UniProtKB/TrEMBL annotation:
Membrane topology per record: Multi-pass membrane protein
InterPro entries: ABC_transp_perm/SBD, MetI-like, MetI-like_sf
Gene3D superfamilies named in the record: MetI-like
Name of this protein: ABC transmembrane type-1 domain-containing protein
Species name: Haladaptatus pallidirubidus
Length: 224
């Protein structure tokens, strides 16, 4: 079967099972977005704390690096005995996998802010919290968002493994298609995942530009 015929068969399979596809896509997207949002909520404050205390920095980055070296299937295997099957253990595994890129980029972005800009803000009488909110975070935003975009794209692929612990998602079609040598089913699950990764990356890039414009305007007002 040629490439065109294979893609046509995959498209035909998708549309003939479209209701199932929408359910799997919703599960997949929910796993990715919720895990990345939770990772942002945890990793950004941890990154800020790490830049203020060298001991905290070593501890946080050390734990993050160790967590990232553990294979995804191993994380799922560790979570399964504690939380069982379903959405929650899948979410925990994806959350753990999304932490490190956001954490390391937050630390890197904040530490690379030009010291002369910070010194000028201190000279104007700004407190450390004001400097963080009005100077450091706006300047570090592109680097932090690079970590968020990396986590989102990685988790789109990682979420396929949620199938093994009953987490649903597009992995249901991909893993089943591999097991049954059903190439149209496999591609019907894999291609939308690739398009989803591209779409999320573009969405976060747009959000970064929007927030960047707003925060830089605030910064220019703050620094006079």
């Amino acid at each position: 079967m040629g490439v065109i015929e294979t893609l046509g068969a995959a498209l035909s399979y998708l549309f003939s099972h479209f209701d199932t596809f929408l359910g799997l896509l919703q599960e997949h997207l929910t796993l990715v977005l919720v895990s990345v949002v939770l990772a942002i909520i945890v990793a950004v404050p941890l990154g800020i704390a790490a830049t203020r205390n060298e001991h905290v920095k070593r501890m946080v980055l050390g734990i993050g690096n160790v967590a990232q070296t553990i294979p995804t299937l191993a994380i799922i295997a560790l979570v399964f005995p504690l939380l069982g099957l379903g959405f929650l253990p899948s979410l925990v595994g994806l959350f753990a996998y999304a932490l490190l890129p956001i954490l390391t980029n937050t630390v890197t972005g904040l530490e690379n802010v030009d010291e002369s800009t910070v010194a000028a803000a201190r000279g104007m009488g700004m407190t450390e919290n004001q400097i963080l909110r009005k100077i450091k975070l706006p300047l570090a935003l592109p680097v932090i968002f690079a970590g968020i975009r990396t986590s989102a794209v990685l988790n789109v692929g990682t979420a396929y493994l949620a199938f093994f612990i009953g987490g649903g998602g597009l992995g249901v079609w991909v893993i089943t298609g591999i097991s049954l040598f059903n190439t149209p089913q496999l591609l019907a699950g894999a291609i939308p995942g690739a398009l989803l990764a591209i779409s999320l990356d573009s969405l976060f890039a747009l959000l970064e530009r929007h927030l960047g414009n707003d925060t830089l305007q605030e910064q220019s007002v703050a620094t006079g």
